[in-house]
């Protein structure tokens, strides 16, 4: 990586930097996925909404020279069945055990393919495992070959997909040991 990057838990005061990173990274995500940026709620959420998520979830940030260059959030799912959109998904989630959900995973363009994304997702998985997770869930555009490959190499499997948000969105699951 270019210089020293520290990974730490985000505070509400980091919301502006996290918001800036998410909007920038999601433009690349949209281009790589072949979807319109208007389809992603991350593109329109307010800084107050980002701050609220930071206050309620575990949000990690990667910081280099006082700039947030990576982020990932993880939270326990009190009821993972809220992610059900087919009988196939329902069957999987009924037996999934204690679930956590990853969201708002982003790495600044110049830090991709440096290992920073691997570090962030590995830490999120570790935090969930330490909290007793049986399963970790996330959504990603099924058309985004780079992300599908990235998650697959980290042990996530595509459980099901649906297009209720205007693009084919996959539900991926990681079964903790």
Task: Tell me what the structure shows.
The chain is of the alpha+beta class and 177 residues long. Strands 1-2-3-4-5-7-6 form a 7-stranded mixed β-sheet, sandwiched between helices. The chain has helices at residues 15-33, 47-56, 87-94, 116-130, 145-153; strands at 6-9, 58-64, 67-77, 99-107, 135-141, 157-162, 169-175. Helix 1 crosses helix 2. Helices cover 34% and strands 29% of the residues. The protein contains 5 helices and 7 strands. It has a single domain (6-175), classed as Aminopeptidase (3-Layer(aba) Sandwich), CATH 3.40.630.
Q: What is the 3D form? A: globular
CATH level-two architecture: 3-Layer(aba) Sandwich
User: Roughly how many Å is the radius of gyration?
Assistant: 16 Å
Largest sheet: 7 strands, mixed
Strand content: 25-35%
Following the backbone from N to C, one meets helices and strands in this order, namely EHHEEHEHEHEE
* Count of all domains: 1
- Estimate the mean pLDDT confidence: 93
What ranges have pLDDT less than 50 throughout 5 or more consecutive residues? none
């Amino acid at each position: 990586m270019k210089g020293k990057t520290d990974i730490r838990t985000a505070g509400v005061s980091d919301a502006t930097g996290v918001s800036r990173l998410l909007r920038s990274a999601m433009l690349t995500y949209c281009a790589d996925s072949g979807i319109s940026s208007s389809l992603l709620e991350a593109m329109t959420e307010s800084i107050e909404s980002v701050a609220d998520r930071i206050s309620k979830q575990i949000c990690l940030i990667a910081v280099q020279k006082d700039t947030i260059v990576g982020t990932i959030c993880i939270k326990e799912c009190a009821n993972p069945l809220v992610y059900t959109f087919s009988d196939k998904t329902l069957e999987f989630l009924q037996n999934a055990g204690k679930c956590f959900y990853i969201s708002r995973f982003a790495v600044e363009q110049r830090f991709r393919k440096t290992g920073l994304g691997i570090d962030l997702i590995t830490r999120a998985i570790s935090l969930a495992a330490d909290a007793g997770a049986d399963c970790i869930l996330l959504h990603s555009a099924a058309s985004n070959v780079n992300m599908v490959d990235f998650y697959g190499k980290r042990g996530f499997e595509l459980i099901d997909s649906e297009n209720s948000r205007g693009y084919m969105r996959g539900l991926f699951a990681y079964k903790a040991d």
